[in-house]
Amino acid sequence: RAAEWSEHRAPDGRPYYYHAGRGESVWEKPQALRDMEAARMAAHGATPQPTIAPTPTLVPSMPPHLMPNPLMHMQAPGTPTPYADPALAYVQAAAAAAAASSLKQVESANKTAQVSNVTEKEQKKKTEETKSKKEDEQKKSAPPAKPVDKSRPISSTPISGTPWCVVWTGDARVFFYNPSTRTSVWERPEELLEREDVDKAVSNPPEQLKTTVTATKTDKEEESSGKAPAANSTAPISNNTTKPESEDDMQEDDDEDDTVIKIRSESESSVEEVPAKKLRMITKSTKKANASEAAAEAEVRAAKERAVVPLETRVKQFKEMLREKDVSAFSTWEKELHKIVFDPRYLLLTSKERKQVFEKYVKDRAEEERKEKRNKMRQKREDFRKLLEDAKLHGKSSFSEFCQRYGKDERYKAIEKVRERESLFNEFLLEVRRREKEEKLQKKEQIRKDFLEMLRERGDSLDRHSRWYDVKKKFESDARYRAVENSLYREEYFQDYMRMLKDEKRKREREREKEREREKEREKERERERKADRKSDRRDKERRSDRSRSRDRDRDIKESREKEKSSKDKAENRKKHDDYEEGEHSSNEDTEDQSANEHEDEEAERLKKERDRQLRAEQSIREREKEVQRTLAGHLRDRDKERELHKREEAIGHFNALLADLVRNPDLTWKEVKRQLRKDHRWELVEFLDRDVREKIFNDHIENLMKKKREKFREMLDEISSLELTSSWKDIKKLIKDDPRYLKYNNSDKCEREFRDYMVDKTISAKVDLKELLKECKLITHKSIELVKDNPNHLKEIEDILKMDKRYLVLDHLSEERTNIVLDYLEELQKRGPPPPPTASDVARRK
User: Bias regions of kind Acidic residues — which residues (predicted)?
Assistant: First the structure.
């Protein structure tokens, strides 16, 4: 049937035809539509001309029924948006197109011929052209109107019995708003389903939209009638047929039976008239029937496809659809629904699965976008840093100069925020300044090393008593001498070299002294070894003699015992023969008794001597043991002292490390720092030190910090090229207020005091340089003071020559003192007298 087909236009303008019942689209015009067109042409008395649809070039992977349907996305003003079910919305859109095509049959049955007058049309066209020209002139002369945001709400209709309101926006869209919960949704809530008052509020747009829609339609009709001839005005019925929404805009009274709607035919310029009420009834009934039927068919097809296709595949296709439709990762389901609801892949999942997959996709996509954003930002910063490197900046470069020079570079524009650009610029500039400072220090140190090497090469002519004034002329031709720009630095390096010579000499003397001490120790050790050897030899001899004496003593004791035994035997024999030989042996007996007594006395004396010898040996052994113990005690004491000294040095090292880590502010006191140090675990290692020693080390550390800070501060002042001896602290403070070396001084008074000390030292240095300049001036001799007294202009001549040197001009603010220095030097030269001849050898004279 022709009513089941509807004609549509593709995005490129080609017509195609859609069957609402079967849900398919074709490029060629169906036979039913051709027959209906032929019948209509016959009714108007015209010969039907078959229309051959152009054969489009289709992508093989995209059948015609998957081509985008413009009517699915178009919505006339005042059309109620079906938000309850997205699937139903999809099929209802298709059914609406089918219902529009069904009007053709009604028109063919009720239409009457109406021929328009060509002359009247031409006159009307001229009138409209004149009117449009005047309107264009008025628009040009009038000020430009401000753009109106059509997405803003223009009307709100509360629904009785519910907290919901129906809200219309300026672009003819409807949403539902709950003031109590501050919730806005596009889909119709459950409590508003199947309510006539809600349907009426959704279908009837406000007066503002009616006026806008009517004016828009009138303009479009006038433009179409003015541009195209009446005989060739062919358009799809779906575009010229009055929509159900426009029908709802009319009054729905029963007295409007005579109201007719003019519908333009596709093939000719005649107008057909159809009763409006009858047309509305037919359209509504057809729409409801087709919508319910199509929704059921779509749901059945989707259920069958869900049963066949695995869940993983469906989820994958659904995610691909979300990616193709460019669904925002930071939006909500309700806001993104209109992008995906008309896609066939929308029905691959159930309602619950859709939302779950959508939430997971949004979460993953948000993380991906954040990563991409971070990577892009990192790449932009790297490119900006590369631009900074290519710019070849130096320590005095400014951000404004950089912006003027590279403001048109794409790497510069990639960083949008000016503050971020300036921050990256400042970070890079800090690195550049630090690098320049290191290079400057390295260069200065290298110049110093070269200068010392030059002095070392001429070391034969220098000793620790040499003076810089006497030897500097020997080095003036050397490039390493000229590399040091300031004469004060040259003299300072020379003094350093002299100190190095003295230190080396002291070191050599200490080495020789240590070597002599070591030689003495070795000699003493050898002497002790020799004494020990002699003593051991004596002890061995004594032991051998003791052993021999003990053997002799044992032998003597044994012999004496044998003698006593033999004497006893003889005595017994004598007693036995007393009676017989008493008279004969009386004289012999007295002699034997006397000899025995003498022998016993000798034996007793010998035993006494032996005991005395043993006592002396034991006494000597005890004395040797005492001497060994005394020597060993001395060694132990030395070892204990070395151990204590080592522990002390180790504790001092730990304490210095502890102070270096925790104490970096020289303004702290020992009492304040001690509490903080006790909390550190390394405090146990330094408790070995006395309290006074710890406090002394702390004071040394604070002095070292103050010295470093002072050196940094003075180094900062040296870098100021505009600094002069007359500069005030107020002016200098403005130049250094952003320097971190100044910010380290928490107190401005301390900075000012340090600045004054610096200026005093700089003034003293300037006076020393002036004296050095006077020594270098060849015009000044020992006779100059006499010449000045005779002719005061001679002093002016000397000053004119000295003014050519910066060392003289620096002291302009101390002109009187400077003049006194010059006069004092002249008087000193006069006291010295004429210089010695080159052949003079008296060192004292040359001094």
Answer: 246-258, 589-604
